């Protein structure tokens, strides 16, 4: 929230103005307190619009309609004055974060939360549509999260007709990416179905963290909205059909709001006792009246939740970190300046305006009790007076890279850990796993009582494109709250963005790239949280001459994999030469697709095992060739082949391949048991590869941050702290070369995987010495 | 490609940076221990790869006029002859060695004992020409010995495999014997396809760096630079000792290779 400007009045229409929530083409939205003590969002229309008689008439009609509407999931209209010189309208103020902020800060929502979100927003839209209103701007920034459910805000009244449509100059003022095709195309009637399409986009975004028509230039977005199928990858099957239906290009094929709400509510477990018998979403006011057992003191909601539940707590509809965020926001709301002493007794419970969320006495009591249970120390905020800082509430968190989450609270400053990842390109499975690992570490840190500071996460996605990598790196650099960055995902994007982070002295902790070149570019802020690719041949050699009893190792360097392959093949050749062991090296042209001659040369040279230095796609070609000639020896590769696409491309020929990689399987490794349990609970999925590695470095960064005294938490100081840190992680022991940021290798952190039954099966730590 | 010699030279600067990086790593050369600490590479290569499937030939430097691309040994020989630098092309004071040129119809092959032999051209290779030149010692500086070579293949794959073979040779034989009384030692190499590490002058390239030691003599700097444009592979070697800096010698080799690449481009694009 921005402070009031000197030109802003202290009071307006009987409300005391507290700050600015936002400003747009038509006017300004203030946070204000009514005489009765309730907080409202007060939208004041510029006088120039009021001069238009048609506008004033429409405003009056819509305000009258909205005033009668009593949807529980719409921030209700408290009052409006269409006749004022500057017409205004006041809606109940919802302190929670926007959905956009929440997803950006805490990642995609679990399925149960999504169902409830969708069902309730569907009901909200159904209620709007039933009285003849169309929202026209349903987007993550217009969905606020409260403890009992979502609130749709900014619901169509006093919206400039041009806001979300293409204007004559071709500029879209609204939110591309969440517009319906009929809005994006600039033609056709904008009926209720356009809200349904937008809701589909919102749900897809909340489920995957990505807008279903991507991001990028306006033209591309609008084009994709009109022509392309939505990207629903990663959406749970049970939701994909419903969301897909909302995203039909033809408005007539989309469900009505009510049908959508019912479809989602049908299978959604209600929030505890609040669920209505007919399965329809509960009215939060009912929920608040319901009797509920007092929570066991000291028991965290997470502990009391069943293992199969994706969200903890007896009635929480959101994952715990989000509940905490809402509680902190609510607490901050309570700490805002009170009603003028001269007018109202500040302690009065008063008669709050109906339908408000935070300031109604019931809400306040329940909200506070809950937040005391959930957020502990945040209560101090309420007593701390007006010092509470606010994050912008109405700011659009739609852009995934724009929001950073937690507001500062009495539990200290907010420090952000950035994630620079490939979340949408070739290596998105690795990037997304790292995002989850990071978020889990941050959530756990924030849930600690007495934490000295709060951590937030900010993600940027380079799509695996080295040209885009420095651009998104600059976004993280520009956010001064970002003190460390985990990533990037690939060698190419890491090399491309190294200089950007170095110039800003922003610590960059790489989890998956392995290029040695990263260490010789002179970066002062780089930390290589894994061994380089040139170390892996030591483990390959140990495995092949040890367990696999190979006498002559064949080395296949695939030039299609350029430097990655060369680091492995040339170092392995050197290792074997030094050990006076025979080797048969073969370098394969990137233009060659037939590995037959390569294999012949290996056999001619007497190779009885193979190391493939290259990536998964061409490894599959070699695997098939080896299979065709019944090659009896061991077949091995490094992490470039640890990819599900190798299994699908090679089929049976993948069986028996052994991969040496700096990646632990946290789903089975005993060291990672606690991590895996927390991960399953948080994400409802088995830990994906590279999640625990990111979790480790996030915790290491938090530890190093903790060593900096207050006021010294700068990027440069954190770089020094990290480079001199020692940290015992789940996957390895971390210590770094102070000059280069290279990991001090102690033999750990490298693991074996073996293809067995069409899956990569974890074999535990890789030995680095040939056992004798 | 940027299409002019200036652009090529600019690219060579990049390659030479990569070359010094590679050479710099050799100084660390502490490989051998089964348990390494940091940066243990004996052959660290600056790596950058985005996606596994993007091949090194996604873009091509050359758009040849098909009618000008040699398809016979005779045409290949004509092209190679016109491309390979003669002594005067290297600089005013360069003179021919003896012999001045390789035996027609042969090329150099590294045998199982890491000795270089001349063998008959295999099928798929149309022609190969090497010319040997020398800048005599003088003015307090030692002699500089250079080679310029061109090999014309029947296909881009065959040409590309010549570069793969070059890389393979260093994996097999970091120490090589060009003549009975000479050794090339401490060899390291780096292949850089088009588009990687800002290489924009050739479809593919290889840089080898090592020392050249003649019997009873001092170790001299040795560089072997190879580049491919379409079906044609051009290469230069530079060997020099006392009084010549690494930069001077690499600059000499880099400009010579750029000159030959420009010639290939002109001959095949008909410009």
Automatic annotation (TrEMBL), chain A:
Transmembrane segments: 371-393
GO molecular function: ATP binding; protein serine/threonine kinase activity
Domain called Protein kinase: residue spans: 15-264
Pfam families: Peripla_BP_6, Pkinase
UniProt biased composition (Low complexity): 266-282, 297-309
Positions bound to ATP: 43
Protein name per Swiss-Prot or TrEMBL: ABC transporter substrate-binding protein
């Amino acid at each position: 929230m921005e402070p009031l400007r000197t030109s802003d009045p202290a009071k307006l229409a009987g409300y005391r103005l507290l700050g600015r929530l936002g400003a747009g083409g038509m006017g300004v939205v203030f946070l204000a307190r009514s005489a009765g003590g309730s907080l409202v969002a007060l939208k004041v229309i510029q006088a120039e619009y009021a001069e238009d008689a048609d506008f004033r008439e429409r405003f009056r009609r819509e305000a009258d309609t909205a005033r009668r509407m009593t949807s529980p999931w719409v921030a209700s209209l408290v009052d409006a004055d269409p006749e004022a010189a500057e017409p205004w309208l006041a809606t109940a103020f919802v302190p929670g974060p926007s959905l956009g902020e929440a997803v950006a800060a805490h990642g995609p929502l679990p399925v149960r939360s999504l169902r409830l979100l969708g069902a309730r927003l569907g009901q909200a839209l159904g209620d709007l549509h039933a009285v003849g209103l169309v929202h026209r701007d349903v987007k993550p920034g217009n969905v606020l999260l409260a403890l009992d459910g979502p609130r749709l805000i900014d619901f169509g009244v006093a919206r400039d007709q041009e806001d979300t449509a293409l204007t004559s100059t071709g500029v879209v003022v609204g939110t591309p990416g969440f517009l319906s095709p009929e809005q994006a195309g600039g033609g056709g009637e904008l009926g209720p179905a356009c809200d349904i399409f937008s809701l589909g986009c919102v749900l897809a975004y909340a489920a995957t963290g990505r807008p279903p028509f991507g991001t990028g230039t306006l033209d591309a977005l609008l084009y994709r909205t009109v022509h392309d199928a939505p990207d629903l990858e990663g959406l749970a099957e049970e939701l994909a059909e419903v969301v897909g239906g909302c995203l039909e290009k033809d408005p007539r094929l989309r469900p009505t709001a009510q049908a959508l709400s019912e479809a989602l509510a049908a299978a959604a477990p209600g929030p505890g006792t609040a669920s209505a018998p007919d399965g329809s979403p509960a009215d939060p006011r009912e929920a608040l009246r319901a009797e509920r057992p007092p929570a066991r003191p000291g028991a965290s909601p997470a502990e009391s939740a069943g293992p199969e539940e994706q969200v903890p707590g007896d009635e929480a509809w959101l994952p715990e970190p989000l509940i905490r965020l809402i509680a902190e926001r609510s607490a901050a709301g309570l700490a805002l300046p009170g009603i003028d002493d001269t007018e109202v007794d500040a302690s009065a419970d008063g008669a709050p305006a109906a339908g408000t969320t935070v300031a109604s006495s019931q809400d306040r009591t329940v909200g506070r009790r809950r937040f005391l249970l959930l957020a502990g120390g945040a209560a101090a905020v309420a007593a701390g007076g007006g010092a509470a800082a606010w994050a912008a509430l109405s700011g659009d968190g739609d852009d995934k890279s724009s929001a950073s989450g937690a507001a500062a609270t009495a539990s200290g400053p907010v420090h952000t850990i950035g994630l620079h990842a490939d979340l949408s390109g070739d290596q998105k499975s690795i990037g997304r796993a790292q995002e989850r690992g990071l978020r889990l570490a941050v959530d756990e840190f924030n849930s600690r009582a007495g934490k000295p500071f709060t951590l937030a996460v900010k993600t940027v996605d380079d799509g695996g494109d080295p040209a885009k990598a420095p651009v998104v790196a600059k976004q993280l650099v520009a956010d001064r709250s970002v003190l460390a960055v985990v990533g990037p995902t690939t060698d190419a994007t890491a090399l491309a963005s190294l200089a950007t982070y170095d110039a800003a002295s922003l610590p960059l902790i790489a989890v998956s790239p392995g290029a040695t070149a990263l260490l010789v570019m002179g970066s002062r802020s780089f930390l290589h949280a894994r061994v380089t690719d040139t170390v892996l041949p030591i483990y390959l050699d140990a495995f092949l001459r040890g367990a696999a009893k190979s006498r002559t190792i064949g080395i296949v360097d695939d030039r299609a994999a350029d430097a990655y392959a060369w680091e492995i093949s040339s170092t392995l050749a050197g290792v074997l030469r030094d050990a006076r062991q025979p080797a048969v090296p073969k370098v394969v042209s990137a233009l060659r697709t037939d590995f037959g001659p390569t294999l012949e040369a290996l056999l001619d040279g007497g190779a009885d095992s193979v190391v493939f230095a290259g990536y998964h796609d061409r490894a599959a070609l070699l695997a098939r060739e080896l299979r065709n000639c019944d090659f009896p020896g061991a077949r091995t590769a490094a992490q470039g082949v640890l990819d599900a696409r190798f299994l699908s491309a090679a089929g049976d020929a993948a069986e028996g391949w052994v991969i040496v990689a700096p990646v632990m399987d946290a789903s089975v490794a005993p060291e990672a048991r606690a991590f895996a349990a927390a991960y399953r609970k948080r994400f409802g999925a088995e830990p994906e590869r590279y999640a625990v590695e990111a979790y480790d470095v996030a915790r290491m960064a938090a530890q190093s941050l903790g060593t900096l005294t207050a006021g010294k938490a700068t990027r440069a100081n954190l770089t020094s702290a990290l480079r001199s840190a020692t940290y015992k992680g789940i996957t390895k022991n971390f210590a770094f070369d102070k000059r280069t940021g290279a990991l001090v290798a102690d033999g750990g952190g490298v693991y074996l995987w073996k293809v067995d039954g069409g899956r990569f099966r974890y074999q535990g730590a890789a030995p680095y010495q040939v056992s004798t | 490609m940027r299409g002019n010699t200036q652009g090529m030279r600019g690219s060579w600067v990049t390659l030479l940076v990569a070359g010094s990086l590679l050479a710099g790593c050799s100084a660390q050369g502490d490989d051998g221990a089964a348990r390494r600490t940091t940066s243990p590479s004996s052959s660290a290569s600056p790596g950058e790869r985005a996606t596994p499937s993007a091949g090194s030939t996604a873009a091509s430097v050359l758009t040849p006029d098909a009618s000008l691309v040699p398809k016979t040994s005779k045409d290949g020989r004509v092209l190679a002859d016109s491309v390979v630098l003669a002594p005067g092309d290297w600089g005013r004071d360069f003179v021919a060695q003896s012999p001045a040129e390789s035996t027609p119809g042969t090329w150099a092959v590294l045998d199982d004992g890491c000795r270089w032999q001349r063998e008959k051209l295999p099928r798929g290779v149309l022609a190969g020409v090497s010319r040997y030149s020398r800048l005599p010692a003088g003015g307090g500086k030692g002699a500089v010995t250079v080679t310029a070579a061109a090999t014309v293949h029947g296909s881009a794959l065959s040409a590309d495999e010549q570069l793969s073979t070059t890389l393979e040779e260093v994996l097999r034989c970091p120490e090589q014997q060009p003549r009975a009384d000479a050794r090339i030692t401490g060899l390291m190499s780096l292949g850089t396809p088009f588009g990687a590490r800002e290489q924009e002058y050739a479809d593919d390239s290889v840089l080898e760096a090592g020392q050249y030691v003649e019997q009873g003599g001092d170790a001299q700097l040795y560089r072997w630079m190879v580049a491919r444009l379409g079906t044609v592979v051009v290469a230069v070697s530079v060997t020099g000792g006392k009084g010549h800096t690494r930069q001077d010698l690499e600059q000499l080799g880099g400009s010579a290779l750029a000159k030959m690449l420009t010639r290939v481009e002109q001959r095949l694009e008909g410009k």
